[in-house]
Every structure is written in structure tokens, then in C-alpha cells.
């Protein structure tokens, strides 16, 4: 079992390069199942979740070639021989459910266990199934599995009760080979949706409106292979931006699309931290004295739920009181207990957390309860007095490429230790 050990108090300076977006590459890998031809994906972040989704595709008969030196994955779906991903893989990661749309669309049948992943909320799949049913699939639920069957999917008008990213992605991939036009209203607008649509259009799909709340998909008869470079990870970028702020640092975050991190930039500037934008980089300059701000997580282009925990670490030492409201997931305050072990003053009231800024945090033994909670504890440890030991760091591995190495390169006193 590994742990991360941080001796806090170092000011971060220098440059850090952001990897490609995990939340973009996973649905794109799943979508490659839509055609039998070769798809080449560049600039891949080799995270635990990426290996899991590749294993899922491999279990279905897809040919997967991983080239870590080139940061590249090559996928061929010409020998798919199963439409039932194994339970042991699907339970590891919620994104495994994203193979449902492509497999259903291409083969007319899929049976899959209910998804797993971080325990940050129920994240129901009803919107996914509602979309599949509207496209003409018969849905069968039972014994922990869901099965969808159809002869041929047909285009439909689908309104999502909530702009779910996963449901939007799954319905998009199901609709690209359907007969006729599909319209998804109240669709998710995240940059990862746009990246998936660009990938599918490069394969020959006909999708318009991605990035807005109304996406139109005109079904096509077949797709072809393509090559695609995945967009940078806006959540990883935001995490290092907060790392610079919380340590009073001066860090240039490279390989980032500033428009994608606009809500993070706005909130950092509101605290008094200086943020300078360039074409593909963002520079954060902080004097470690910042004021509290209120935060409410919202679907894109609002403040991302995946940055809530990291900002709570920042607000724990801000001047004043901040109220952080979580509207996306109902169980995303598990990091509060661990931050309080480090001296943070946080009270939870329903879906809101009241954070009273303190003079500073102190090192402690803490554990990562989920991916972003782990990132928040690393941020807290960077500025805490003394030594912080973070356990269960496998959660962090799900979303950050070499976090320890990248932080060390910009001045953090941080080590990963195997016990």
C-alpha cells in the first residue's frame, strides 16, 4: 500500500504541463467500438481508469495496442465477440457504462452490470435508459444488471431532466447509427461533450450543437476509423492553479484551454489571487493571503463539482467565512472530516458547507476517500505546518498523472512511499 508524504510550507514556482482529460478520453475510447476500423488516440493520460476501460474493450474482443512511450492507444473493433462486459471490470469504474451506447447501436444488444466508481453519490442511470428507450430499445432490469435490446434504433426527441454528462455521451453514441434524426434537449454542455462529438464527426457521424443545450444527431449508416488528440484536463489544470494559490506560489500551467477553466479563474481572481491568461497557458501568482468566496457547484459552464473539494482546502485558510454548496452530488463532502483533522473549521448543513478560515493547517495522517478528496488533501498538505501522510492514494491515481512528480518539479517537498 502506498502513501504520499508531504512536508508543507514550500512555495511552488515554475511550470507544470497538464495531461489530456480523463473525462474526455474514457467516453472516446468507448465510442471507438462503433466501427470495426482502426482508431488512433494521441496524448493519452495513462491513468488507472484508462487501463480499466481498455480492459473492458479487450474483454469484448476489441484489439487494444497501448504505446506508453508515444502516449498513444490504437483500437480496432473488428473482432467484437461479446456484448456483455464482465462484472469484475464494470464494478471498478462508472465510466464502463459508456460502452452501452456504442454496443447497443452497433450490435442491437448489451447486458451490463450496474456501474461502480467513486462513492460520491447515487448518480442514477435512469437518464441513460430513458434515452435508449426513446430510441426504441427494450430495457430489462434485474439481479444487478441492465439489458437493452433493439432491432434498429430510431431517431427521437429526448429531453434530459438534468444535463447529465454521462447520459448525453451515451445517447450521442447510441444515436449516431440510428435511423433518422435525434435531438437531445437540456444536454450537457461540457468541453468533454464537444471533444466526443468532434471524434465522432471525424469518424463520419453528423452531429451539430455540441457545447450547447441542444444537440442534433443525424444518423449515418456506418463510421470509419480516425485519429484524434484528446483535449487537456481542465480539472487537473484547476487543481494545480489552486496549488499555486494555496502555497503563495507563482506557477505557469501549460497545455490548458483558458476558456475551459473560466469559472476557476473567476473564483481565484475573486479571492484576490492574480491569474494571467495566454493562448494555451495560465499563470497563477499568489501572496498566500486571499479572502473567502462563496461557491455553488453547477453543470458547465458553472463552477465544476470536480473542483469543489480543492477549493474547500483553499477556503479553509482564507480570510473570512465561505459557504460552499454542492448541487450535483449528494455525498461529496467526505473530505471534510479529513480536512478537519488538519485543523480546518468546517460545518456541514445539508448540501452546504460553512468554512471558517483559520490561520493555517497542521500536518496529520489522513486518507483519500475519493479522487478529488485526495487532491484536496494534497493541497492542504502543501501548505500545512509539519508532515502530512495521505493514505488510500489509489483514488488519486484514477485522475492525476504523476501528481507527486509534477508537484516535486515545481518545488513541493513530497514523496510517494510504498509500505
UniProtKB/TrEMBL annotation:
It is found in: Cytoplasm. The gene is murA. Keywords: Cell cycle, Cell division, Cell shape, Cell wall biogenesis/degradation, Cytoplasm, Peptidoglycan synthesis, Pyruvate, Transferase. The modification 2-(S-cysteinyl)pyruvic acid O-phosphothioketal is found at residue 118. The keyword Acetylation does not apply. Gene3D superfamilies: Enolpyruvate transferase domain (3.65.10.10). This is UDP-N-acetylglucosamine 1-carboxyvinyltransferase. GO terms for cellular component: cytoplasm. It comes from Fonticella tunisiensis. Belongs to the EPSP synthase family. MurA subfamily. UDP-N-acetyl-alpha-D-glucosamine binds at residues 94, 123-127, 306, 328. The lineage of its organism: Bacteria, Bacillati, Bacillota, Clostridia, Eubacteriales.
Amino acid at each position: 500500500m502506498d502513501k504520499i508524504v508531504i512536508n508543507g510550507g514550500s512555495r511552488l514556482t515554475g511550470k507544470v504541463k497538464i495531461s489530456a482529460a480523463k473525462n474526455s478520453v474514457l467516453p472516446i475510447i468507448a465510442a471507438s467500438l462503433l466501427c470495426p476500423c482502426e482508431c488512433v488516440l494521441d496524448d493519452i493520460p495513462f491513468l488507472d481508469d484508462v487501463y480499466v476501460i481498455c480492459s473492458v474493450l479487450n474483454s469484448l474482443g476489441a484489439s487494444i495496442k497501448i504505446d506508453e512511450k508515444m502516449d498513444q492507444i490504437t483500437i480496432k473493433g473488428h473482432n467484437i465477440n461479446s456484448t456483455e462486459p464482465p462484472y469484475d471490470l464494470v464494478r471498478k469504474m462508472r465510466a464502463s457504462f459508456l460502452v452501452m451506447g456504442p454496443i447497443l447501436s452497433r450490435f442491437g444488444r448489451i447486458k451490463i452490470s450496474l456501474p461502480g466508481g467513486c462513492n460520491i453519490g447515487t448518480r442514477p442511470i435512469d437518464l441513460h435508459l430513458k434515452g435508449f428507450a426513446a430510441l426504441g430499445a427494450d430495457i430489462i432490469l434485474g439481479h444487478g444488471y441492465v439489458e437493452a435490446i433493439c432491432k434498429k434504433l430510431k431517431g427521437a426527441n429526448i429531453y434530459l431532466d438534468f444535463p447529465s454528462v454521462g447520459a448525453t455521451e451515451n445517447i450521442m453514441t447510441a444515436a449516431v447509427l440510428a435511423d433518422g434524426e435525434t435531438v437531445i434537449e437540456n444536454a450537457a454542455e461540457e468541453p468533454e461533450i464537444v471533444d466526443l462529438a468532434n471524434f465522432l464527426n471525424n469518424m463520419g457521424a453528423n452531429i451539430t450543437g455540441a457545447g450547447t443545450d441542444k444537440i442534433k444527431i443525424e444518423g449515418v449508416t456506418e463510421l470509419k476509423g480516425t485519429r484524434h488528440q484528446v483535449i487537456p484536463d481542465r480539472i487537473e489544470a484547476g487543481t494545480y492553479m489552486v496549488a499555486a494559490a494555496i502555497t503563495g506560489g507563482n506557477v505557469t500551467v501549460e497545455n490548458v484551454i483558458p476558456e475551459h477553466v473560466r469559472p476557476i479563474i473567476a473564483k481565484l481572481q475573486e479571492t484576490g489571487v492574480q491569474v494571467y491568461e495566454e493562448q494555451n497557458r495560465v499563470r497563477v501568482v499568489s501572496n498566500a493571503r486571499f479572502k473567502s468566496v462563496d461557491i455553488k457547484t453547477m453543470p458547465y459552464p458553472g463552477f465544476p463539482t470536480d473542483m469543489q473539494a480543492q477549493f474547500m482546502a483553499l477556503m479553509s485558510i482564507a480570510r473570512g467565512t465561505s459557504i460552499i454548496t454542492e448541487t450535483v452530488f449528494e455525498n461529496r463532502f467526505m473530505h471534510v472530516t479529513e480536512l478537519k483533522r488538519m485543523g480546518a473549521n468546517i460545518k456541514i448543513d445539508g448540501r452546504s458547507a460553512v468554512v471558517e478560515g483559520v490561520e493555517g493547517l497542521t500536518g496529520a495522517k489522513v486518507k483519500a476517500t475519493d479522487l478529488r478528496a485526495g487532491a484536496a488533501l494534497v493541497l492542504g498538505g502543501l501548505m500545512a505546518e509539519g508532515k502530512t501522510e495521505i493514505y488510500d492514494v489509489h483514488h488519486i491515481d484514477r485522475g492525476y498523472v504523476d501528481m507527486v512528480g509534477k508537484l516535486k518539479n515545481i518545488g513541493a517537498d513530497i514523496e510517494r512511499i510504498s509500505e
